[in-house]
Amino acid sequence: xxxxxxxxxxxxxxxxxxxxxxxxxxxxxxxxxxxxxxxxxxxxxxxxxxxxxxxxxxxxxxxxxxxxxxxxxxxxxxxxxxxxxxxxxxxxxxxxxxxxxxxxxxxxxxx
Length: 111
Known about the structure:
This protein has 2 helices and 7 strands, in the order βββββββαα. By secondary structure, the protein is an alpha+beta fold. The strands form 2 sheets. Strands 1, 2, 5, 6 and 7 form a 5-stranded antiparallel β-sheet that branches. The protein has a two-stranded antiparallel sheet with strand order 3-4. The longest helix is centred in the last third of the chain and has 11 residues, at 91-101. The protein is globular, with a radius of gyration of 15 Å. The mean pLDDT is 92.
């Protein structure tokens, strides 16, 4: 799987951040959901805890959206989608959904 990290958003919980990524998946059967998934590019938001060199992720704590179907992987397309990720119509929805699902709040940035 090819992954580009878009950003890490600080939360009010120490060491915990919301990580936004764009990645390519070959698609196929999703073992957990028992559904057929398309081949293409996805955007995900996942809460992760960073403690030195250890990164912890809780299963099923994140959310993802499908953003583009393709027949094969292209590094150029991945970079283009990653560059425009923050402008995607569902970018903010993805972040807010994950915050709500995990009872998290973003850390306020001082002005």
